[in-house]
Specification:
This protein has about 120 residues and is mainly alpha-helical. The protein contains 6 helices and no strands.
Length: about 120
């Protein structure tokens, strides 16, 4: 089962990122400021829920073998990947300061991953 931990963590990062992008997309598509049944049943919102259910299972698989002190900071890679994804998929802008933050996050995750 330990051979599954790192791929599970990697896939949890990917699905967590996709889930956040889907959530933002779903909220944009409904165009309403109120979050009602129409919003909650939107296809993108249901896909977000599925992503998070699977992400939770993958996270549990990863934590069985990877120390939390190492896995959790690596999961933080989402803080770098989500803005990149939102700039490409949702036409959101990344400022220079955010870009520097993304670089710092990636460098930090690389250092934690080395330990």
């Amino acid at each position: 089962m330990s051979w599954l931990a790192w791929p599970a963590l990697s896939f949890a990062i990917v699905l967590g990122t996709v889930g956040q992008l889907l959530l933002k997309y779903a909220l944009r598509q409904t165009g309403s400021t109120a979050i009602g049944l129409r919003t909650m049943l939107a296809p993108a919102m249901l896909a977000w829920l599925l992503c998070y259910a699977i992400t939770t299972i993958l996270w549990l698989l990863a934590l069985r073998c990877i120390p939390l002190s190492q896995a959790f900071p690596i999961l933080g890679l989402q803080f770098a990947v989500i803005p990149i994804g939102s700039s490409h998929g949702l036409d959101e802008r990344i400022t220079r300061v955010q870009g520097l933050g993304i670089i710092a996050i990636i460098a930090g995750v690389a250092m934690v991953g080395q330990s």
